[in-house]
Write a structure and sequence with these properties.
mainly alpha; two-stranded parallel sheet; about 120 residues
């Protein structure tokens, strides 16, 4: 939410928890920014703005170590793996973010399938 606050403040938006949940959560960047950026922005500029947001978010996550797996997740995944069960992850995160989490949280080898929400 912090990155959205920083990026959208120059456009006059105050990103509150409620605003974030209603207008951002679960949506993909093009959809979010098509509605939030001025109508003078082209499709290409909206895509570029979304890519810039993703880069800022990745920088923030890696520098602040602000995101951690849910308590008990790694233990649960280890138990599932030890019992030879297959696991899928379903997310709306882009490939770069999924890779970042996988490395940062040492998730390699736990998931047999990775599905994007837009493909489900």
């Amino acid at each position: 939410m912090l990155i959205f606050k920083q990026l959208m403040q120059p456009f006059g938006y105050e990103i509150t928890e409620e605003f974030y949940k209603e207008r951002i959560t679960g949506k993909h960047n093009p959809e979010i920014f098509r509605h939030l950026l001025p109508s003078t922005y082209t499709h290409e500029e909206i895509i570029a703005f979304g890519e810039m947001k993703e880069e800022k978010f990745r920088e923030y996550v890696t520098s602040e170590k602000c995101m951690q797996p849910l308590l008990g997740l790694l233990e649960l995944l280890s138990e599932i793996k030890n019992n030879n069960l297959k696991v899928a992850i379903v997310t709306n995160a882009c490939r770069k973010m999924r890779s970042l989490w996988s490395v940062q949280w040492k998730l390699d080898g736990f998931f047999h399938y990775s599905l994007l929400v837009m493909n489900v």
